[in-house]
Amino acid sequence: QAVPAGSHVRLNLQTGEREVKLPDTENGQSDTREERRRRRLGKVDVDTNSFTSEELKKALAKMKASEKAERKVSFQSLKQYRVEEEVRKKFRPIEQLKEEFEKLNMKIETDYEIMVKLISKFNSSASTLDEKVAALYDLEYYVHQV
C-alpha cells in the first residue's frame, strides 16, 4: 500500500504487521501533507476557493525567489562544467601519456604498480635481508602518500 513520502515504516515482528508513522515536526506533532503545504505557501488561506490579490502576489513572489535559487544552482553547475572542460584541455589522460612515453622507450609506472613490485620483492625468498628492508622503506614512502 502506498504511504506518504517521508513516513517512517517498520515491520512489527510480534504481530507481523507493517506500521507507518508520519515524521514529527519541531513541536512534536505529526506533519500532514496539508500542513506542509500551508507552511510552504506561507500564511495563505488555502481552504477557501478564492484568494485575495495580496495572497497571490505573496505566493508568486515566493515562487520567483525559489526559481532564482534554482537558476543560481544550475548556473553554478554550468560554471563547474566549464572548469572541468578547461582542466581536460590542459591535462591529458594517463593512458595517452603512457602511450607517448612508450614511443620514447620510457616506462611510466603508477604508485600502485610500484607498490605491487615492492611487496613481491619483500615476499620473495630470493631477496636478501637488505633488499627486504629497502623494500619496506620504499613501501612506507608510497603508503604515506596514499
Automatic annotation (TrEMBL):
| Keyword Phosphoprotein included in the entry's annotation | no
Q: Which UniProt keywords apply?
A: Endoplasmic reticulum, Protein transport, Transport
Record carries keyword rRNA-binding = no
Q: Where is this region: Disordered?
A: 1-42
Quote the cellular component terms of the Gene Ontology held in the record: endoplasmic reticulum
Gene Ontology MF annotations: adenyl-nucleotide exchange factor activity
Fetch the PANTHER family from UniProt: NUCLEOTIDE EXCHANGE FACTOR SIL1 (PTHR19316:SF35), PROTEIN FOLDING REGULATOR (PTHR19316)
**Name of the protein:** SIL1 factor
